[in-house]
Design goal:
The chain has 22 helices and 8 strands. It has 533 residues and is of the alpha/beta class. The chain has a 6-stranded mixed beta sheet with strand order 1-3-5-4-6-2, sandwiched between helices. The chain has a two-stranded antiparallel ribbon with strand order 7-8. The N and C termini lie far apart (68 Å).
C-alpha cells in the first residue's frame, strides 16, 4: 500500500458481493462516457466496489493528474473490468481510474462533501493535505472540471487547448470489459487473478481481503480508520457495531494522535504509531500478534456475531494502555526513544517487539524492576538505535526480525538488572551471532553523512533526538522521558499525608510511576523494620 496515496475511497461505495446476485439482464455497454459519470446518472448510482476491494488510496496527486489529463486528451487508458449483478455494477478492476475521474468531476479528492460524509466528519490531517495538494496540481496544470464547464459557456474566449479538450469530453470514454461470471464466487476469483498484475496484491493485504469477515481483519479495519468509513462490521447487531466503532476510534487515537507533522521532526509530540495513513498492514500485524494469530496463508474463519472482533480489539487496547494513554497502569513510553529511527522514521517491527517485551514484563510482574532501571535502559536504546536497523537488514523485515529485536531489548534489561554498564552489555551481545555487528569498530549511522554542506531532514531530526536525551521533559519519579499522551500530575506530599493541590506540591510523572511504583515503594518503606542507629 502506498504510504502517501490520495484517498478516493468515498467516491465508489462498497457492497457485499453476495448482497445482490440475481442474474444480469440486458446488454451492458462497452464504453463509459463523462455523461454516464454525472452526479445523477444511473450508472454512478449503481457503481460498487466489492467489499474485499482494496482501499482506493494508493495513487499520488501526480498520478491522478496524469489519468485525468490522459482522459481529456484521448490517450490510451486500460479498460475497466466490471461485473453486473442485480441492481449493482461491481468494479472488478479500474476503481482507481474511475475514482480519479469522479474526483475531478466532483472536486472531491478526499476532503469534500462525499468524503466528509463517508468518514463521519473525521478526515485525517494528512488526507486533507494530500487533497489540497492534488487540487492545487489539478488547477495549475489541466484545470478543474468546473473551469471547463464555465469555458464551454464562453467557448469563443477559450484557448485552443481548452477547446480541444472540451470537444474530447463529449467524445472520449473508458472501454468497459464485462466479467462473464454468473455468480459472486466466480467474479471474486476473477478479481484476484486480475489483480496479480501489473500491481500484485500485497501478501498481507491479500490475507485481509480473503479473510475480510474474520475478527482480525474487521478489527484491523476498525482501528485503521478510527471506526469510520466503510462499515466492514455492518452485518453485526447495532449494539456490536457501536462498540466496535467506539473502541476502534479509541485505539486509533492512542496510536495516531497527535498527527505526525512534517520533516524534520521539531517537536517530541509525535504519534506513538507513526503516520496513521494507509497503515493497514501494520495494524493487521498488531492485532494478530496481540491475539496469538500466526502468519498462516489460510484465510481465518469468519466472525459470525462480532464477539471475537470485540475480544481482539480489547486485547489491543489493553496492551496499548500499558505503553501509552493516561491509564493508571501506563508506562508512557516515549515514541522517539523506542519506536522511531534516529532519522525520524517509524519502525513498525520495533513497536511490535516492544509490545511483546512489555507484555512479558507484565506477565512476570517485573514492571517495578523495569522502572528501577528505566532511565538507563532508555538511554541504552537511544544510544544504539542503529542496532534496530542492522538487525532488520540481517534478519529480514517483519516477523523475521522481531524475535531478535525482542532479545536485544531483554538482554539489555538483564544486563542492567545485573548491574552491568553499557560496555559490558555490548560485550555480552557481541557474542550472539545476531548482534555480532557490535564487534565492528564503527557501526553505520542512519543520519546521512554525504558531501553536502546542508543538513538534510534526517540529520536535523537526529540532532533533535540527541538533544531530547539531555533536554527532554522527564518523569519526577523514574527520570525517564515523558510524552504528552501519558502525563500524570503527582502530589509530592501525598494527599493522605496532608499534601495540597497547589503548583508547589505538583510534579509530572508517568501514570504507572504515580499510581503504582511510588505507592508500592512507600508501602515497602513503611513495612520495613527499623534500622539500628
Amino acid at each position: 500500500m502506498a504510504a502517501n496515496g490520495v484517498n478516493l475511497d468515498a467516491l465508489i461505495p462498497r457492497e457485499d458481493f453476495a448482497a445482490s446476485s440475481a442474474p444480469a439482464k440486458g446488454n451492458p455497454t462497452g464504453t463509459i462516457s463523462i455523461g454516464q459519470l454525472a452526479d445523477d446518472s444511473f450508472l454512478v448510482q449503481s457503481l460498487r466496489k466489492p467489499d474485499f476491494q482494496r482501499e482506493t488510496a494508493s495513487w499520488t496527486p501526480q498520478k491522478i493528474v496524469d489519468l485525468v489529463s490522459a482522459f481529456l486528451d484521448g490517450d490510451l487508458i486500460p479498460a475497466v473490468i466490471l461485473w453486473r449483478s442485480g441492481q449493482y455494477v461491481f468494479v472488478i478492476d479500474g476503481a482507481h481510474r474511475l475514482s480519479a475521474i469522479l474526483a475531478w468531476l466532483y472536486d472531491d479528492y478526499g476532503d469534500r462533501h462525499r468524503s466528509v460524509a463517508f468518514f463521519d466528519n473525521q478526515v485525517p490531517e494528512e488526507q486533507l493535505k494530500l487533497a489540497a495538494q492534488t487540487r492545487k496540481l489539478i488547477d495549475g496544470t489541466i484545470g478543474s472540471y468546473a473551469s471547463y464547464q464555465e469555458a464551454k459557456k464562453n467557448i469563443s474566449f477559450a484557448n485552443e487547448k481548452t477547446k480541444e479538450r472540451i470537444g474530447g469530453l463529449a467524445a472520449n470514454s473508458f472501454i468497459a470489459q464485462w466479467v462473464p461470471a454468473v455468480d459472486a464466487k466466480g467474479a471474486e476469483n476473477s478479481f484476484f487473478k486480475i489483480n496479480q498484475s501489473p500491481t500484485p496484491v500485497d501478501p498481507i493485504e491479500k490475507r485481509i481481503l480473503k479473510g475480510r469477515r474474520s475478527a482480525s481483519a474487521i478489527a484491523a479495519r476498525a482501528i485503521n480508520r478510527g471506526g469510520v468509513g466503510h462499515k466492514y462490521w455492518a452485518h453485526f447487531s447495532p449494539e456490536t457495531q457501536v462498540a466496535i466503532e467506539k473502541i476502534g476510534a479509541s485505539i486509533y487515537g492512542a496510536l495516531y494522535l497527535p498527527p505526525m507533522g512534517g520533516m524534520p521532526i521539531k517537536s517530541s509530540d509525535v504519534p506513538v504509531g507513526g503516520r496513521g495513513y494507509s497503515s493497514l498492514p501494520f495494524v493487521f500485524d498488531l492485532v494478530n500478534l496481540l491475539n496469538g494469530i500466526g502468519t498462516t496463508k489460510d484465510a481465518p474463519p469468519d466472525d459470525p456475531d462480532g464477539a471475537m472482533t470485540l475480544a481482539y480489539l480489547g486485547a489491543v487496547e489493553k496492551r496499548l494502555q500499558r505503553i501509552t494513554t493516561t491509564s493508571p497502569g501506563s508506562l508512557g513510553l516515549h515514541p522517539l526513544a523506542y519506536f522511531y529511527t534516529r532519522g525520524g522514521t517509524f519502525q513498525p517491527v520495533a513497536f511490535l517487539a516492544v509490545m511483546q517485551v512489555i507484555g512479558r514484563l507484565v506477565e512476570r510482574k517485573r514492571l517495578d524492576r523495569f522502572t528501577d532501571v528505566r532511565r538507563a535502559f532508555e538511554l541504552f536504546v537511544m544510544n544504539h538505535k542503529e542496532a534496530f536497523t542492522l538487525v532488520v537488514k540481517r534478519q529480514g523485515s517483519g516477523p523475521r526480525s522481531r524475535p531478535a529485536l525482542e532479545a536485544f531489548l531483554e538482554m539489555a534489561l538483564d544486563g542492567l538488572w545485573a548491574g552491568k554498564n553499557d560496555k559490558e552489555i555490548i560485550a555480552d551481545m557481541s557474542a550472539d551471532p545476531r548482534f555480532s555487528f557490535f564487534a565492528t569498530p564503527a557501526p553505520v549511522r542512519e543520519a546521512s553523512e554525504g558531501a553536502s554542506r546542508d543538513f538534510d531532514s534526517k540529520a536535523k531530526t537526529a540532532a533533535f533526538v540527541l538533544g531530547l536525551q539531555t533536554g527532554g521533559v522527564r518523569c519526577a519519579i523514574c527520570d525517564a522521558l515523558l510524552h504528552r499522551n501519558s502525563m500524570s500530575t503527582d502530589h509530592i506530599v501525598r494527599k493522605a499525608d496532608g499534601g495540597g493541590a497547589h503548583s508547589g506540591n505538583a510534579q509530572i510523572t508517568h501514570p504507572y510511576c504515580n499510581s503504582t511504583y511510588k505507592e508500592r515503594a512507600i508501602s515497602q518503606t513503611a513495612d520495613a523494620p527499623e534500622q539500628p542507629v
